[in-house]
UniProtKB/TrEMBL annotation:
Pfam families: Coatomer_E (PF04733)
Location within or outside the cell: Cytoplasmic vesicle, COPI-coated vesicle membrane; Golgi apparatus membrane
Keyword Protein transport: yes
Organism classification: Eukaryota, Fungi, Dikarya, Basidiomycota, Agaricomycotina
Annotated GO CC locations: COPI vesicle coat; Golgi membrane
Record protein name field: Coatomer subunit epsilon
Cited Gene3D superfamilies: Tetratricopeptide repeat domain
PANTHER family: COATOMER SUBUNIT EPSILON
Protein's GO biological process: endoplasmic reticulum to Golgi vesicle-mediated transport; intra-Golgi vesicle-mediated transport; protein transport; retrograde vesicle-mediated transport, Golgi to endoplasmic reticulum
Length: 312
């Protein structure tokens, strides 16, 4: 069972309070909490799009398989979109094989972490089948289930995501991560008019020990889907004061554009310009650019006929 300190770190990480986690002081190196806490700190740096900080944090000479895996994930994210990312994926593939042996430095928890980090990298690289195989079809690790659910939702298979969630309920405790998984599925499926995710995110934001722009963004997105645009803008604006990321900017642009006011339209254009400039590889930016190109190509093939002259 986790100590109360490690339990708190895990909860903060699960809810996306990454800045809080990176600011935590590491326990004594001889403490059983040291490696798990170090991994959560490194993963938080990666989640904040600062893989270099993660690489500086993890000892380069460590033989622990989980620390090796978080190093490889940081290398992959740092090189994502370039040819150098493949070497990091190969390191994760090797580690995924290595943990199946007996001569491995690391606990069962460390081995489970390797699968989650490798599966995450494979999914980000578009290797979804490899990711699912690595995570394990019958896994009883809730973090692995969370990644599996995200993969199924990303390919528009909420039925499989729900099946995975229902399977995990048979063995998982009433864990915060389990509640988060249920909320994410509800957010995608729109069940009961998004009541479950809205209630979950609101409850978490009522926790005085939590400061998570991630949860604020999630509730903002939920409010967009509930047609509560001014409230959504309020959540997303507050999230941006805490931390700027692509998802919050994209959601804020959508909420502003749907607000039906002149100011909202202006704000939406400004936010979209900022998103396109700062995050040119964001899926929404890439998708709109492709559609814009297709529209221009179609327009170039179409000749507008001259107006018919009126009869004298």
């Amino acid at each position: 069972m986790d100590s109360s300190e490690l339990y708190h770190v895990k909860q903060q990480f699960v809810l996306g309070a990454y800045k809080t986690v990176v600011d935590l002081t590491l326990p004594d190196p001889n403490s059983p909490d040291f490696i798990p806490t170090l991994i959560y700190k490194a993963r938080s740096h990666i989640a904040l799009n600062d893989p270099k900080a993660a690489l500086q944090l993890v000892p380069a000479d460590s033989e622990n398989v989980a620390l090796k895996a978080v190093t490889s994930l940081a290398k992959f994210v740092a090189a994502e979109g370039t040819s150098n990312s493949e070497s990091a994926l190969e390191e994760l593939r090797d580690l995924s094989v290595e943990i199946e042996g007996d001569d491995v430095e690391g606990t069962d928890r460390d081995k489970a972490t390797v699968r989650v980090l490798a599966g995450t990298a494979f999914a980000r690289a578009g290797e979804l089948e490899e990711a699912l195989e690595t995570l394990g079809a019958d896994t009883e690790d809730l973090e692995a289930v969370a990644v599996i659910v995200q993969i199924y939702l990303s390919i528009n298979r909420p039925d499989l995501a729900k099946k995975e969630y229902e399977r995990s309920k048979r063995w998982a405790e009433d864990d915060l991560l389990l509640q988060l998984i249920e909320s994410i599925i509800g957010l995608v499926t729109g069940k009961d008019e998004y009541h479950n995710p809205y209630t979950f995110y609101t409850e978490q934001l009522g926790n005085p020990s939590l400061s998570s722009p991630h949860v604020l963004t999630a509730r903002g997105v939920t409010r967009i889907l509930r047609n509560e645009f001014p409230e959504a803008q309020s959540d997303l604006e507050e999230a941006l004061t805490q931390h700027t990321d692509a998802e919050t900017l994209a959601a804020f642009a959508v909420a502003s554009g749907l607000s039906s006011t002149k100011k909202g339209e202006t704000d939406a254009n400004e936010l979209w310009t900022r998103l396109s400039s700062e995050y040119p590889r964001h899926p929404s930016v890439v998708d709109i650019a492709k559609k814009s190109t297709l529209f221009d190509e179609a327009m170039a093939k179409y000749t507008v006929p001259p107006l018919a002259a009126s009869a004298a």
